[in-house]
DNA sequence: ATGAAAGCGCTAACAT
DNA sequence: ATGTTAGCGCTTTCAT
């Protein structure tokens, strides 16, 4: 049988002790090169696979980290996980995934799972429906390092990695103004979600910086969906002073807007400019292609894991929470480029 | 401290032994209800979290399964993982994710990782570049249950869950014929990849079933990409007898075809029909919306995990490998619907 | 219905 | 440079 080889077997075969084998395998300085070689060779020959479970139990470090996401089906999170994975694997960490389906009750279960697995740290993006954060405070109290990514909460003393949504909103709006659009509207999302509120503020900031007074009639607050984008446009086009461009809080909303405008035979970008947010995959392929703001998902994954690894390495109990803010990346395409 | 409570602590507090506590917690029939209640209450009070690592070491079962995917960024795999996750969590299994980036060398590393983590089983989708399958045979030899999903290999005696690509190709082609298209072309992919070859066979099968002789001039074999779709159309439109419809092996290829046709002002679907394969997200949102074949990703994830759990539960060493074939689902949209 | 005791495979003092 | 020993937290046989 090749599947139950332990360090003791190697030790026996080499007429030495498990301790020496253990040290040799982990490249301990006090072990002679000769021994190390012999051990390595025998391990290879016996087809030895280290038992991480035993190692974890003894050392108290699992070399696993838990990642909690709202859904693996959302492109954005798949992409972030991609970034996390790459760093994790090269740092020798395993990644446990848990999906919350946007529900607090599953967040609680996920945390149970992670704690039982004795993960060395947790990365989490908060579910939409969560407003009671005690479960996060509890893991913090237990001394398990946590880092939020994207959907963060600044009031819990927990580190986070987010994109600068204010700046993203600002850039998007300014781009429309620079393209010569005169009345720029904004379709926003639920205001209790911080990122949407920040994008709205960025929109207002850009207008003001360009000497334009914010017209609240031009701000439509809805949900985040294709439907919301359609309703928004229908509403905006009924205004006495119609807008000639719109910054949508999210790409799907922008898509709804585009569909509605096309139905009404309003030419994009010549008569009406549209920009979204998120750089979803479809934006590149629709007609006209959609201008948007990229959230640097892969970088976000990398940055959050790196931050978490730092917390794991020097567990200064009383270190201040850190906040990494990534720059949003403008991606300008046809939907805003007028001649 | 609340974060180092063990069953011994509970036992001590209750004036009993770890064995009893362990049994009580796992609902052992020989333990009185009274004791069970007391143990549960004390566990709650002390904020006890079971140590899965210790449990795994002792019991030899990790209750973890490894999932190996080419990339978390590909929508398709994100979606399958979604399906796997849902079943896994409710069955009490943790999911370890490993990305191979389509490289055999990372497949080998992933397997090492999984073996070290002593996963109870492995789900894998084979990397494009892999042609030497010894690493999979080795885990099989070690007695670790394996199930392939989507990208499978039938020659290794390993169970798999796939969609019926032949049937998918058949359905797609037949749909075009039923819509009245007369000369249906096919853009295929690299033939050493089984799924592409199967779709090609499905295409040919449908033509024959409708009494149409296969014209090999109408079969273009390229890569799977937007570019390939464009080149294919350019090539096909130069034929003396031009096609009036195309079944593309994959949605991105179909997208390239559509872009090229639009540039040439050929009307879709009236003058030319296009159908793809995969049901990528963008297909719904482009103009015209793309007809395609859905691969039932979430079902695939569920089915593969269920099959794996069966293998884990009754490890009949000599049980025959099983093959689950899912039905492809037609999704017909504008790009093939002519009046 | 409960207890005693051994041990899963590894690591890390503490020897020598 | 290597060996001895104890033990991480749990499960499980064997006893009572």
Write the layout of secondary structure elements.
2 copies of one chain form a homodimer.
Chain A (H helix, E strand, L loop, with lengths): L6 H8 L3 H8 L7 H14 L5 H8 L4 E6 L5 H16 L3 E6 L4 H13 L4 E4 L9 H8 L4 E4 L9 E5 L1 H14 L5 E5 L5 H16 L9 E3 L4 H11 L8 E4 L2 H13 L9 E3 L16 E3 L2 H17 L9 E4 L2 E3 L8
Parallel strand pairs in A: 1-2, 1-3, 3-4, 4-5, 5-11, 6-7, 6-8, 8-9
Antiparallel strand pairs in A: 10-12
The first copy, chain A, binds a DNA duplex (16 and 16 nucleotides) through helix 2 and helix 4.
How would you describe this protein?
- Two copies of one chain form a homodimer.
- With about 350 residues, chain A is α/β, with parallel strands linked by helices.
- Chain A has three domains: about 5-50, lambda repressor-like DNA-binding domains (434 Repressor (Amino-terminal Domain)); about 65-165 and about 295-325, 3-Layer(aba) Sandwich (Rossmann fold), CATH 3.40.50.2300; about 165-295, Rossmann fold (3-Layer(aba) Sandwich).
- Chain A has twelve helices and twelve strands.
- In chain A, helix 1 (about 5-15) crosses helix 2 (about 20-25) and helix 2 (about 20-25) crosses helix 3 (about 35-45).
- The longest helix of chain A is centred in the last third of the chain and has 17 residues, at about 295-315.
- The first copy, chain A, is elongated, with a radius of gyration of 26 Å.
- Chain A starts with 6 loop residues before the first helix and ends in an 8-residue tail after the last strand.
- The relative contact order of chain A is 0.12.
- The mean pLDDT of chain A is about 90.
- The interface between A and B is large, with 51 and 50 residues.
- The structure holds a DNA duplex (16 and 16 nucleotides).
């Amino acid at each position: 049988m090749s599947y139950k080889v332990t360090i003791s077997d190697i030790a026996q075969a080499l007429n030495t002790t498990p301790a020496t084998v253990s040290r040799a395998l982990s490249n301990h300085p006090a072990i002679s090169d000769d021994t190390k070689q012999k051990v390595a060779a025998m391990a290879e020959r016996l087809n030895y696979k280290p038992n991480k479970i035993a190692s974890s139990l003894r050392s108290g470090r699992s070399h696993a980290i838990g990642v909690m996401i709202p859904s693996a089906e959302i492109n954005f999170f798949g992409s972030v996980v991609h970034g996390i994975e790459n760093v994790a694997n090269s740092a020798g960490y395993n990644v446990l995934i848990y999906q919350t389906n946007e529900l607090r009750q599953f967040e609680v279960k996920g945390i149970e799972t992670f704690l039982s697995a004795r993960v060395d740290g947790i990365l989490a993006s908060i579910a939409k429906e969560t407003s009671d954060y005690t479960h996060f405070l509890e893991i913090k109290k237990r001394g398990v390092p946590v880092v939020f990514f994207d959907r963060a909460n600044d009031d819990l003393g927990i580190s986070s990695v987010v994109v600068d949504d204010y700046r993203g909103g600002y850039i998007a709006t300014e781009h429309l103004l620079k393209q010569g659009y005169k009345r720029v509207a904004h379709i926003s999302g639920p205001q209790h979600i911080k990122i949407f509120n920040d994008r709205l503020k960025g929109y207002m900031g850009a207008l003001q910086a360009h000497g334009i007074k914010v017209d609240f009639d031009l701000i439509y607050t809805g949900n985040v969906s294709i439907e919301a984008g359609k309703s928004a446009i229908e509403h905006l086009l009924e205004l006495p002073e119609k807008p000639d461009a719109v910054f949508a809080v999210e790409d799907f909303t922008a898509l709804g807007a585009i569909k509605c405008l096309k139905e009404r035979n309003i030419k994009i970008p010549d008569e009406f400019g549209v920009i979204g947010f998120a750089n979803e995959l479809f934006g590149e392929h629709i007609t006209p292609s959609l201008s948007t703001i990229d959230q640097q998902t892969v970088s976000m994954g990398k940055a959050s894991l790196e931050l978490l690894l730092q917390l794991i390495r020097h567990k200064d109990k009383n270190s201040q929470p850190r906040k990494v803010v990534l720059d949003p990346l403008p991606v300008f395409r046809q939907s805003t480029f007028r001649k």
